[in-house]
Amino acid sequence: MYATIVLAITVAAGIAGFVLARRFVRRRLRFVDAVRSPLAPLIAGAAAAVVVWPAALLPMITGTTAVIFGVGTGLGTASGVKALKRGD
Fold first, then answer.
1. In the chain, at which residue ranges do the beta strands (DSSP E only) sit?
2. Contact 13, 72 (CB under 8 A)
């Protein structure tokens, strides 16, 4: 049961990172030229993982959860930039 809860939290963190980053890029960073850099998703993902890393001390959140959150954030940033280029 514990493993299932940890897995659910990890999946939810990845999805939340993606959705929040995509929405933030599309709404707040639409006029910022630096977000269109190929390094922007990597920097955003790494920063998100580092910020969430201290939460890995909690019992139900692992280091994998922090990494998956960072990956979701990076992918969400890339998706938001692609949406801006398409004009969505």
1. none
2. yes
Cα separation, 19 vs 1, whole angstroms:
27
Q: List the structure tokens of 6.
A: 């940890």
- The structure tokens listed for 38 are 């190929």
Chain centroid offset of residue 73 CA: 1
Q: How far apart are CA 84 and CA 57, in angstroms?
A: 37
The pLDDT tens digits for 14-68 are 999 999 999 999 999 999 999 999 999 999 999 999 999 999 899 899 999 999 9
CB atoms within 10 A of CB 72: 25
In three-state secondary structure terms, 1 is coil
Q: Is the pTM of this model over 0.85?
A: yes
Residue 88: pLDDT over 80: no
Q: Distance of CA 73 to CAs 2, 3, 19, 30, Å?
A: 25, 23, 8, 17
